[in-house]
Amino acid sequence: MSQTETPSTTGRRTYVLDTNVLLYDPGALASFGEHDLVLPITVIEEIDKFKRDLNETGRNARTISRAVDGLRAEGSLSKGVPLPGGGTLVVDLGLDADQLPRNFEPNTNDNRILATVHSLARKQPLGSVVFVTRDVNMRLKADALGIKAEDYEHAHIQFDENYTGVAEREVPEKLIQELYQRGWVSFEDTTLYSNQYVILKAADRSDNQSAMGRFDERQQRLVRVQRQKDAVWGIYPRNKEQIFALDLLLDDSIRLVTLDGIAGTGKTLLAIACGLQKVADEGAYRRLVVARPIFPMGRDVGFLPGDISEKLNPWMKPIFDNLELLLNGEDGDDKRGRGAPSYQPLIDQKIIEVEPLTYIRGRSIPRQFLIIDEAQNLTPHEVKTVITRAGEGTKVILTGDPYQIDNPYVDATSNGLTYVVEHFKGQALAGHVTLKKGERSELAEMAAKLL
């Protein structure tokens, strides 16, 4: 094959992996089938620096280091060792790496990796060497050098952006009346998923008669859903989506709930309110655990003073704000006067536990109401780690906005929240609702729409 020819898409290729691919998915080496893989030595050095971190990235770095070391038993990594899928793995020392153009700073790890890829691409048929990186700028620089570059497609999923957990159907008026009278109606619809909500509208009337139901896939019927008569810790639903969210959150047979939506739609507040009712009022669960990944918005402020609770307070403040609202009302006025926060007795009595997600790994969490806030900042691997912590009788709630992401390793199609929504869609023990209308304030809703 000449240098100007492009190999067939079914032909064997050489994929050069960037560090961020391995840190995102420590199982990436098994994702390329019969194709050959190359790890520049700079990638190994970067992984070595990350392996000391006491977080998910550090654990992934240690995992990939052990995996590569295990393959070393099959032969010399510098010459190539066989992979289970049929390809080979080579660690390239970059001894004959090309000199990049003058504008590329030679002393950066990124450009050392690019130099190695450029050298490999120059020696092999055009298009047969592919650089795989999750870094957009690295893909741009590779393209400028004439190197074929791709995102790590195994990280992305094909998901239905239109799936909100709610559908509308036009039905005869008689069916709506039957739903009101009996509380359920037989309803066969192959396009609906288990626990999906359906807004029924009368097709033969002009007065907009409607009803709301939740689809039971196993029995092929709709079960009527109506507004909560009593407040949930002072919270009444303000729109249909919030009614549906409360229905899922208060149903103990639904073990996994995902709520997404723009800022101010009430995702976290509704989840915490239902958790307090289930734990403090009904005793259905032992404890309410609220956790969130630690990612700053904007530039980090550096080290924080104080003990562990004081250090974590800025990260957990959004959760504490919701607790204050539930305990003190919308005016936020602490009726007890100044002193300890109004939620402190609940924490002291172990009714509520607020902590960063870092401490979830390795735990077994039975009979607890577990809320993971800002779940869009998790990778699929991290969200799997969280959900598999759930012991017998535990309910897990994931809240977040897939389009408001602070984690540089994920995006709208590769984050943990989207991953869970798509994979649990249609499961009888899971439910999902997208909240659309902002209820925080008129200004907040307008900002979410216009900015």
Describe it for me?
The protein is α/β, with parallel strands linked by helices. The protein has a 6-stranded mixed beta sheet. Strands 14-13-15-16-12-17 form a 6-stranded parallel beta sheet, sandwiched between helices. A hairpin with a 5-residue loop joins strand 3 and strand 4. Helix 2 packs antiparallel against helix 4 and helix 8 crosses helix 9. The radius of gyration is 26 Å and the shape is elongated. The two termini are 52 Å apart. The N terminus is likely disordered.
Quaternary structure: single chain
Uncertain residue ranges? 1-9, 296-304
Main sheet: which strands, in order across?
3-4-2-1-5-6
Give the helix tally.
13
Question: Structural class, from helix and strand content?
Answer: alpha/beta
Features:
451 residues, alpha/beta, 6-stranded parallel β-sheet, elongated, disordered N terminus
Summarize the structure.
This protein is of the alpha/beta class and 451 residues long. Helices cover 32% and strands 18% of the residues.
Topology of this protein?
Blueprint: E1 14-17, H1 19-24, E2 36-40, H2 41-50, H3 56-71, E3 81-82, E4 88-92, H4 109-123, E5 129-132, H5 136-144, E6 148-150, E7 166-171, H6 173-182, E8 184-186, E9 197-202, E10 210-216, E11 221-224, H7 240-249, E12 256-261, H8 267-281, E13 287-292, H9 308-328, H10 344-348, E14 352-356, E15 368-372, H11 380-387, E16 395-400, H12 416-424, E17 430-435, H13 442-450
Parallel strand pairs: 1-2, 1-5, 2-4, 5-6, 7-9, 12-16, 12-17, 13-14, 13-15, 15-16
Antiparallel strand pairs: 3-4, 8-11, 9-10, 10-11
Helix pairs in contact: 2-3, 2-4, 7-8, 8-9, 11-12
